[in-house]
Amino acid sequence: MSQKFSPVSRSGRFASGPAADVAAFSESISFDWRLWRYDLTGSIAHARMLQQVGLLTKTEANAIVRGLEEISAEIEAGKFAWKPELEDVHMNIEAELTRRVPAGAKLHTGRSRNDQVALDVRLWLRDESAALSAELRVLQRALVELGAAHTGVILPGYTHLQRAQPVYFAHHLLAYVEMLDRDHGRLADAARRANVCPLGAGALAGSTLPLDREFVARQLGFVDARGRPLVSQNSMDAVSDRDFAVEFCAAAALIAVHLSRLAEDVILWAGSEFNFIRIADAYTTGSSLMPQKKNPDVAELTRGKSARVIGNLVALLTLLKGLPMTYNRDLQEDKERLFDTADTARACVRLMAAMLAHTSVNAAACAAAARDPLLLATDLADYLVRRGMAFRQAHHVVGAVVGLAEKLGKPLDQLSLEELRGADPAFEADALEVFDLEKAMARRTLPGAPGTREVQRQLARWRKALA
Ligand code: ARG
What is the mean predicted confidence (pLDDT) over 130-156? Predict the structure, then answer.
């Protein structure tokens, strides 16, 4: 009896099953099985709602819930046999339920796989987004702690990858903490918009049955800050919308890009030419040919993997752009892009955090680089500005002084007062004091500048915020 109503999408209308190659082409169970927990949660809420509105008896609903819980335990234990011929996770679970519990044939009342899959993915994404957000916090903390452990370390800051002005190492790291904080905010923002329950939208046009959509939304935690249920307001939008998936992938792509930039800095710093940091052996790899090599592969792979996360975003946008309303099977292609994005972004964030926690700083090499007096050429121009000179002129004068030092083969801070005054008489005896690096850093007092006190203040602010 229950076999007759087995929940395959082809029952009734079709004389034959799909051709073998069609089944293989269209199955999604090989990847969407990972939605099982959310599919079960959604089905339990749906069953309770059907009971609530009188479409299931209490006995039927209890039997269905018990059956689903049994299946849950079996999947958890790895004992559930997924069947490719049942296409996807929804069919696999429902078919098995119905085989065990006759009332299972009533579970799909007022529901389509179209609203079901939209629900499952939203539920899955809610957890993934929270997990990624938590990992971002770990990475932020790793950056802050690395900076805080080396508060005195100064580096050249670069523009065009040319030495520009001195910055604290911590200031450089905190730049990434800021970026990651915006990423964290973007994930939260996307999660807020994803927090809408699509169940009850049916295939595309809702249902003639007296479903209680708000009951389901409440059961599944689709509620606003005041606990009021949030349900989708247009059934066609509900089953065809994948904005929430795109938003997650976009936020993840930007995270990946930020990590890729951090990775690039790490790779440069770890190279012999910079030699600013040392990554612990456990977070590097060797060469199969060159015995001396110690390569920053974690950073390189993070930089490389950003390509897939960016690609996944583009794939999703491309997937959606030509689709007529409403559900189209194309949408099944969203899952692997989404899963890969979540897995890859999370792994990169986690590995970068672990690598930074196992990175030491070569203070001597940083100090040697930061000692380059050219880094303070702008401070020398500011010296002239303080004496009333127009900045454009001061820029020109100091440019000439730099040229002179180069011609004489002297470091900029080794020029004599006479040589400086030869360029402009505005220079006085205290001009060379500009090159005291400690004092130069203390002079940077603007909010957001790499000044001694300001960087301490920012470190303290982040430590508190991330505690
Ligand atoms: N596996 C499908 C997907 O991921 C589930 C929805 C199928 N709906 C349908 N009408 N064929 O999109």
Answer: 98
